[in-house]
Every structure is written in structure tokens, then in C-alpha cells.
């Protein structure tokens, strides 16, 4: 097969498009998760932006999307060039190891020796040139046998992200920036995050993983042999429509639900098999309304960001973010760092400081049986 000009040989992009983005409720719902929304005012959904960022790197015919069965129509409407064999449907969410591992197993059967890169469908990345340069280095490190991630150079002591502690340089051909990973660190408190940024040897964990598919599967086999066995069985049945459905129904619900950070990245780092490429491009995982406000206000805390095609907002001496999907007039007077999300059937009012706590509202709604607004 001819490699399109400018793309990376043997490279396949994988886009896990799952989760509901519960910290962005009530904007993000089970039937309309955050990757299907335009959260930056670009005119594109986050999923479409991800596709356009990856297509020049791997080629449109070498992008695989892993998503839920319920989202297939919406995903295909957003991505009309997505090849049908590259749509991988989950019967239910089983977290990132299962999603990315299945993609790796399918692609390794189709193309032994393939290098895959996993990039979330709901992240915002600016400066595509720097992003592409980081991916090229990550592919070179992966070809050398490392599980590789791209870490983001911190611009502030953020407490909403995990951190990667970098060790010394690896001196790999084609990847001059590659560093060994010392450890992964969970979301820290503010004082700890300030220490990480001052130290200079920590990067934000952006959840991007690049590896030879066979090496990724080896790591899963080491730490989660039962999960690996199920993924291999699924991949063997995948490309035959007669066997795929029964295999998914039988195997998928029994797969362990675990994030790839825990099943692959942390054990690989402990064994010296994980590399990181520092990324110097603007990145955000749009994890809550505070980050969404910052994205849409140019980083100026005094501004009020407004999202919604027909938003009717009157504001005086107010800052924060308003997301409007209704026709109501929203008036704000003298409120700072406010978050207002107005949808036809649910209203959220909080502050940027408490934006991370929105997930607790979603959990409470589940417990009370109010699933009609989820």
C-alpha cells in the first residue's frame, strides 16, 4: 500500500472516543458526550478536530476509532472518510486498556509490526506543527522498542492533571528529545504541583501513548494476562462479521475495566521500558468548566466566556463562563468566576473553583434514579 506523502510509515492513529465527560454535565451527556461538542468555537467538534490533526500524520485510511455502539451514527456523521473496517464498537465501556488494546490486537493481525498512537477524541491541541514533530519522535522511540508517551511542558501548577517525572535522556536515533520515565504521579495538591513546576523535571500526563502494537500487547500480557487473552480472542474473530458479534457479546463484558496508565504505563516505567517526548504545544483535556472558561477567554481571568449559538446573556462586572442551549435570557451582575450551564432540562450553577465537583452531582443523580437527565 502506498504511503500518502508526508505521513509516517507503518503508523496508525487510534482515537478512543468514549466516556461521557461527567465533569461537563449537563452539557455533556451519555447520548452526546463532550467529544461530539464544539467547545472552542472553532466550528468543529472535538472529535472532528482530532481527526483533522491526525489525518496528515497517518493518512485518513489509517485512523481507527473505538467508540460505543450508541455513538456510531454520530461518529460516522462527523467523520465521513472513516473506513468502515476502522470503526471498532464497544458494547459497553471497559476503560482505556481494553479499548486501546483491542485496537492494537486487530491492527497487529492485519499488519504485523504496525506502530499505533492513541490520542483521545476530546482534547484540545493547538500548534499542529509542534504536535506532529512530537509524534514523529514518539514513533521513532516506539520503533526502538519503548512504550512511549508525550508529556506536556507545564505552563502552571495545575492540580487537575497527572504528572510524569522524567529521568535522563535515552539518546535514541530519530528521537533526540526522548527521556526515560521515572514515575507517574497522580493529581497533586497545589503546593506539590508548584514544586513540580519549579523542579523542571515534571511534565503533564496527556494520556497519549505510542508503541509497536506487539510491544503494547506484551505489556498487557505481563500485567493482565486474562485481559490480554480476551483481546487476542476478540481480534481473531473481529474481521469476520459472522464471528465478531458473538465474540463481543461473550468476551467484552468480562474484560477487566482498568486504565492503560495502570495496566501498561506505570509497570513499563518501573521496568525502564517507558519513554516520554516533551511536548511544547498548547494542550488541554477540557476536564471541567474552569478549563473550558480559560480556553474560551484567552486565559484572561476577568473575561466572561459565552458558548451557544443563540445565547442571550447580559453581564455587568462578571467573569467566568456561560453555556446556553436554551432561549432564556441569562443576566449576571457582579459575580466572579461563575459557571452557568443552561440546557432545556437541566441547569447548573457553580464557580470555577468548584468545577471539579460537578461529577459528584452526576453520581448523586444516578443514585436517585434521575437518569433521564444524564
From TrEMBL:
Residues 313-365 form the MannoseP isomerase/GMP-like beta-helix domain. Gene3D superfamilies: Spore Coat Polysaccharide Biosynthesis Protein SpsA, Chain A. GO terms for biological process: GDP-mannose biosynthetic process. Residues 14-297 form the Nucleotidyl transferase domain. InterPro entries: ManC/GMP-like_b-helix, Mannose-6P_isomerase_type2, NTP_transferase_dom, Nucleotide-diphossugar_trans. GO terms for molecular function: mannose-1-phosphate guanylyltransferase (GTP) activity. Pfam families: ManC_GMP_beta-helix, NTP_transferase. This is Sugar phosphate nucleotidyltransferase.
